[in-house]
Amino acid sequence: MITLNNVSKAYATGAPALNGVSLHIKKGEFVFIVGDSGSGKSTMIKLLLRELVPTSGDINVMGYDLVRIRHRKIPKFRRNLGIVFQDFRLLKDRNVYENVAFAQRIIQVSNKEIKRNVPSILAIVGLAGKYKAKPRQLSGGEQQRVAIARALINQPSILLADEPTGNLDPKNSWEIMKLLEQINENGTTVLVVTHNREIVNAMQKRVVTMKKGVIVSDEEKGGYIDED
Ligand SMILES: Nc1ncnc2c1ncn2[C@@H]1O[C@H](COP(=O)(O)OP(=O)(O)OP(=O)(O)O)[C@@H](O)[C@H]1O
After folding, report:
1. What is the rounded distance in angstroms from the CA atom of residue 163 to the CA atom of residue 142?
2. Tens-place pLDDT, residues 141-194
3. How much of the chain is in helix, strand and coil states, percent to nearest 5?
4. Which residue of 43, 45, 47, 167 sits with most ligand 1 atoms within 8 Å of its CB, as the best mutation to test the pocket?
5. Domain 1-80+156-228: which CATH number of 3.90.580.10, 3.40.50.300, 3.40.47.10, 3.90.1280.10
6. In the chain, which residues fall in CATH 3.40.50.300?
7. Is ligand 1 within 6 A of the CB of residue 81?
């Protein structure tokens, strides 16, 4: 489903952000990517989204060769991916329903289908009663649920979450992680970049640890490795 083969990425300045990274993630896995600030986690996410191209090495996601993919095929490739960020990135002047529906309008789903799909995804994320609310009327945890609904509405095979609990308190963080786990149990491959040590240790999932652009450990049912 996701294969990185000896991938390096150097920016114009500084040491390479990724340096010879190889990683294979199978369909249906739940994987945490952890590591210090600057270890290369965001760079890896950007490479998987094809926002960046590696300096060397190969990346294959869902059968797409992301080094050689043609530009016009990138939007279609990205439909396989849902993405959630630390800062939610909701449309502030639109209500919950519209924030989620928007992702379907972009790919020209009919209004009739949108009216069926949006309530059903809002029920899955536990927001059925809040469809008229604007983002500012919601808690951080609720806003992240809207973002997750938006990421899932087009039924991606892979969900990428970049620090999804970075702005949340422990209770909401835990609820969001449980929701991601449930989504994974329903068949979506889930990758979560996080600094949340307690959650990583408690969840007993695969943990890939990065340091200075290399993978220093990759463990099934792993934990958060302390620095030094
Ligand atoms: N656009 C850029 N130009 C130059 N260097 C960059 C750029 N983006 C990232 N870097 C550098 O690449 C390295 C890896 O950065 P990256 O953002 O991937 O780390 P990270 O693990 O996601 O960090 P954080 O946890 O703080 O988000 C860092 O040394 C960073 O300074």
Report:
1. 16
2. 999 999 999 999 999 999 999 999 999 999 999 999 999 999 999 999 999 999
3. 35, 25, 40
4. 43
5. 3.40.50.300
6. 1-80+156-228
7. no
